[in-house]
Amino acid sequence: FVIVRSHETGERIPLTIADSDAERGTITLVMQEVGRGTEKLGAFEEGQSYIDVVGPLGKHREIPEGKTIVCVSGGLGLAPMYPQTKAYHAAGNKVISIVGARSKSLLFWQDKIEKVSTRVLYSTDDGSFGHHGYATQLLEQLVAEGEKIDEVVAIGPVPHMRAVAECCKKHNLPVTVSLNPIMVDGTGMCGGCRVTVGGKVQYACVDGPEFDGAEVDFAELMARQGTY
Ligand code: FES
């Protein structure tokens, strides 16, 4: 991921590199305007520059081969899920994408994700597109269908990742989550992104952001997110 700032006194905002083009030398970032910082970033026109882009930060992801991987994204989590889905697909894995959103109007990149997935299942909380309900229910459906799943990856809001991790624990499936705690420096110095994984203190910016979902202390993570 990278940390961007719009201007000298701008907030430092961590964003996953959602796509890249080595030939053009570009990276793609996806964000939702939810506050002053992201609104400022979103107001930039083509050709303008953010004051800084720091990265790449975090650990890289090992890409397995010949496996069946289920990628369960929630909301904006589809953006950070996309590059790994693409990489799993390119490495010859069977990739089943489960894309959850609150509503159809919040879905994006359907064409991109469909191109790099063997199968795509959609759910919306309000039933405006795909399954009426949650992404975890579609994961349960896959298990009930007898799909042989080697690994599950969950990215999205903390309650989404927690629900997927619980579902995976129930079915004894390995699950990786990509945590998004509050970050400041992104280099392991401020402690803002502290999480507990397997009883040990970890820093999402340098030790993650991906962790074993079965080991993450989600209750603590949610409490810490609520502090800010
Ligand atoms: Fe400061 Fe991770 S963002 S320690």
Instruction: Summarize the main sheet.
Output: 7 strands, mixed
Percent strand = 25-35%
The DSSP helix count reads 7
Order of helices and strands: EEEEHEEHEHEEHEHEEEHEH
The poorly predicted ranges are none
Radius of gyration: 17 Å
Strand element count: 14
Strand order of the largest sheet: 9-8-7-6-10-11-14
Ligands present: FE2/S2 (inorganic) cluster
Give the distance, in angstroms, between the N- and C-terminal Cα atoms: 22 Å
Give the tags.
14 strands, seven-stranded mixed sheet, globular, three-stranded antiparallel sheet, 26% strand, 228 residues, binds FE2/S2 (inorganic) cluster
What does this structure look like?
By secondary structure, the protein is of the alpha/beta class. The chain is 28% helix and 26% strand. The chain contains seven helices and 14 strands. The chain has helices spanning 36-42, 78-90, 110-115, 135-145, 158-170, 204-207, 218-227, and strands at residues 2-5, 13-15, 19-21, 26-28, 52-54, 68-74, 94-101, 119-124, 131-132, 151-155, 175-178, 194-197, 200-203, 210-212. The protein has a seven-stranded mixed beta sheet, with helices on both faces. Strands 2-1-5 form a three-stranded antiparallel beta sheet, with helices on one face. Strand 1 and strand 2 form a beta hairpin. The longest helix has 13 residues, at 78-90. The radius of gyration is 17 Å and the shape is globular. Bound molecules: FE2/S2 (inorganic) cluster. FE2/S2 (inorganic) cluster is lined by residues 183-186, 188-193, 203, 205.
